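Prompt: I keep going back and forth on a fold encoding question. Comparing notes only helps if you start from a blank page. Show me how you would write down a chain together with its backbone fold. Please set it down just below, with no commentary around it:
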Amino acid sequence: MTFPYTHWKPLALDEAAQLFRDAPFAWGVAGGYAVEQFLGAPIREHDDIDIVVFREDQRKVQGWLSGWQLFAADPPGTLRPWSSSEWLPFGIHDIWGHRAGADAWELQLMLLEADGDEWFSRRDARVRGLRKELLVRYGDLPCIRIDVQLMYKARGNRPKDQIDFQASLPLLTPEARAWLRQALRYEHPAGHPWLAALK
């Protein structure tokens, strides 16, 4: 590896938006930045920047980032170079990258799963929805829908995830609360601390 996994100098949000603005594939901001776009204001510091794309578009993504050094998380928890034109199968979900000459990681890509007109969670295929409703605009940027983003954050339930959930909770629509409750019940059958707050 060129540098440690913990060594990040992430693109700023506006830099990432400019990088993908005219891309020939669907993409969206994810993670804490997506939460802040939903809220309309910053609430905390960020260690990295996450962009989601559909798995089926991965070769378009690789071509779009042709000047970047890209690494696949294969197996998860490790990184290896992503070879030109290599197809990343289900099971490889994350791609890290940096521009040539950079001295730290600058971008994380996450691959979304889809089947026809529907997207589905890689963790539990019962958690799914219409593809056209997964990426929405918050502010002037495409983002992963807030209830879906919170579902992904629920698994880690780290201090930053708690901050994001508590900040978002008052603004969730009844429909978003209901969707998130059901998704958490599927993915956390033993229960999850957020369920009580979502009632």
Q: What stands out?
A: Residues 174-187 form the longest helix (14 residues). The CA atoms of residues 29 and 106 lie 14 Å apart. The two ends are 46 Å apart (CA to CA). The chain has seven helices and ten strands.
